[in-house]
């Protein structure tokens, strides 16, 4: 079987072969009939009868053939196509699929909330709503989203600061992390004593 011009992630082809020959720069993803298991083939298999049981007698189907020669290597946000180019997953962009597309945020490039016209986007973005749809950021919400009525909906763990700024400090029982989020109370046991932070 030859390599396709596109990434065949969703197609399958039944394999009726007793051996597999793979080029050194490709991998094949194979499914096992009557099972949810997949096999990744990194090298040729001279005789499928030498595979462990029950694989040696199972019906196999080809799910995908991928190149391993993408340069630069694809990040977790993409797959290397048979042509040696990174094919980005939804929400990712860049030569190696290393960045978030517009409207996406965080390490897994999640979609920004639908109620936001603009959010804190990008790989290091928090997804915080910067400007709601149908109006500006009129509620001065630091770590939350402005509702359509101008009120502020704080992100989990945040509350109004002493100076009146909405969602600017951690609520009681929460602590500020190094990433700028408010997480629940931290308990530490040291030498038999329980400390809460």
Observed structural traits:
single chain, 197 residues, mainly beta, four-stranded antiparallel β-sheet, two-stranded antiparallel ribbon, elongated
Strand order of the largest sheet: 1-4-2-3
Beginning-to-end CA distance, first to last residue:
61 Å
The total count of helices amounts to: 0
Tally of extended strands? 20
Using the CA coordinates, give the radius of gyration.
25 Å
Shape label: elongated
Order of helices and strands: EEEEEEEEEEEEEEEEEEEE
Unreliable spans: none
Secondary structure: helix percent: under 10%
The assigned structural class equals: mainly beta
Mean pLDDT: 78
| β-strand amount | 25-35%
List the helices and strands and how they pair.
Blueprint (H helix, E strand, L loop, with lengths): L12 E3 L10 E7 L5 E4 L18 E8 L10 E3 L5 E3 L3 E2 L5 E2 L3 E2 L4 E2 L4 E4 L9 E4 L11 E3 L5 E3 L3 E2 L9 E2 L3 E3 L5 E3 L2 E4 L2 E4 L1
Antiparallel strand pairs: 1-4, 2-3, 2-4, 5-6, 7-8, 9-10, 11-12, 13-14, 15-16, 17-18, 19-20
Descriptive overview:
It contains no helices and 20 strands. It has strands at 13-15, 26-32, 38-41, 60-67, 78-80, 86-88, 92-93, 99-100, 104-105, 110-111, 116-119, 129-132, 144-146, 152-154, 158-159, 169-170, 174-176, 182-184, 187-190, 193-196. The chain is mostly beta strands. The strands form 9 sheets. It has a 4-stranded antiparallel beta sheet with strand order 1-4-2-3, with no helix packed on it. The protein has a two-stranded antiparallel sheet with strand order 5-6. It has a domain at 13-67. Helix content is 0%, strand content 35%.
């Amino acid at each position: 079987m030859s390599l396709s011009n596109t990434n065949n992630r969703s197609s399958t082809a039944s394999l009726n072969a007793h051996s597999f020959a793979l080029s050194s720069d490709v991998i094949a993803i194979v499914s096992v009939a009557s099972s949810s298991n997949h096999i990744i083939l990194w090298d040729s298999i001279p005789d499928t009868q030498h595979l462990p049981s029950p694989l040696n007698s199972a019906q196999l189907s080809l799910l995908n053939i991928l190149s391993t020669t993408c340069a630069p290597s694809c990040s977790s946000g993409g797959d290397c196509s048979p042509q040696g180019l990174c094919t980005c997953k939804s929400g990712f962009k860049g030569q190696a699929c290393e960045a978030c597309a517009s409207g996406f945020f965080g390490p897994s490039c999640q979609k920004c909330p639908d109620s936001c016209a603009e959010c804190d986007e990008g790989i290091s973005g928090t997804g915080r709503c910067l400007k709601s749809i149908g109006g500006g950021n009129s509620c001065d919400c630091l770590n939350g989203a402005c509702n359509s009525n101008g009120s502020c909906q704080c992100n989990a763990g945040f509350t109004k600061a002493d100076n009146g700024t909405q969602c600017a400090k951690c609520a009681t029982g929460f602590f500020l992390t190094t990433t700028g989020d408010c997480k629940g109370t931290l308990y530490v046991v040291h030498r038999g004593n329980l400390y809460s932070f």
